[in-house]
């Protein structure tokens, strides 16, 4: 009975992965992710990988009495200059990792953690 409850999960906890039951767990896990307030960003992070910041073009700004001129240049994207969708994807990474680690038991975690390319 306890194993069935753990496998099903709850509102506060994702379902637990049981050995040999990955397809069922994946389906339940993604349904659980969809119930989270940031479910769309979590799903994107889990299925597509973490957000990779890109470079953005900073347009030139002429000098004023209070500030020097800024020449046109590129800079690495930061949360401060990301679009709301990209920022949500970027911020979802830590929660996605936490949910996955919460959804797998110690035995499965140990097996995956021992892999060089996992």
Strand content: 5-15%
Strand order in the sheet with the most strands: 1-2
Give the proportion of residues in helices: 40-55%
Unreliable residue stretches: none
Number of contiguous helices: 5
Quaternary state of the chains: single chain
Count the E strands. Answer: 2
**Helix/strand/pairing class, anyone?**
mainly alpha
What integer is the average pLDDT? 88
Report the radius of gyration as a whole number of Å: 21 Å
Shape: elongated
Q: Mind summarizing the main beta sheet? A: 2 strands, antiparallel
* Helix-strand string: HHHEEHH
Give structural attributes:
single chain; 118 residues; two-stranded antiparallel sheet; 5 helices
Describe the structure.
This protein has 118 residues and is mostly helical. It has a domain at 2-50 and 84-113. Helices cover 49% and strands 7% of the residues. It has 5 helices and 2 strands. It has helices spanning 2-8, 22-34, 39-48, 84-103, 106-113; strands at 55-58, 73-76. A two-stranded antiparallel ribbon has the order 1-2. α3 packs across α4 (84-103). The chain is elongated, with a radius of gyration of 21 Å. The protein starts with a helix and ends in a 5-residue tail after the last helix.
């Amino acid at each position: 009975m306890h194993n069935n409850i753990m496998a099903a999960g709850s509102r506060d906890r994702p379902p637990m992965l049981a050995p040999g039951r990955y397809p069922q767990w994946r389906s339940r896990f993604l349904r659980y992710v969809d119930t989270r307030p940031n479910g769309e960003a979590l799903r994107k992070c889990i299925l597509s990988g973490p957000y990779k910041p890109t470079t953005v073009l900073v347009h030139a700004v002429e000098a004023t009495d209070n500030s020097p001129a800024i020449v046109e240049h590129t800079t690495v994207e930061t949360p401060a200059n990301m679009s709301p969708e990209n920022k949500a994807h970027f911020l979802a990474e830590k929660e996605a990792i936490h949910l996955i680690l919460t959804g797998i038991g110690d035995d499965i975690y140990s097996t995956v953690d021992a892999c060089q390319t996992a």
